[in-house]
Amino acid sequence: IVSASSNDGLRFVVKADGITIYASPIVKAKNSRVPIRVDLPKSVRQLELKVESLNNNLNDHAYWVDPRLTF
């Protein structure tokens, strides 16, 4: 689950070996919670959990809440 609030929007992104494998819908609402579930390719060596600010990052707040990897 991710949690966020933003004036102009932000997006949660999961990258595997530098390739985007998930991008959330644009999140704006205060205290929005978005569940994310992604199947990773077996050969992944590097995993990135990112937050991208869309226009500016003024008052953007975002959290990856309890991210987990399960095998």
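(ticket continues) Second input and output from the same batch:
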Amino acid sequence: EIIVDGRQGMLVDSDSPLELAHACCSMLALDPAARQELVAAGRELVLTRFSSRRNALEIAGLYRRLLRKV
């Protein structure tokens, strides 16, 4: 998994509305500081793992590896 459950977000089964509802309630039950910490960690993960620069570098690396095989 990309997200560590309870650290950078909350993982739920995509086919379970009940699980999603429980996760939402859990988030709302957190104290504001803990909730903000979870949100900040998730945001940081997205900004570092899915930046346009990183994606471009990964695609360029893939093309280089493919071209070496030709």
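Agent notes: Residues 23 and 48 are 24 Å apart (CA to CA). The helical segments are 17-29, 32-49, 52-69. Closing as not reproducible unless the customer responds.
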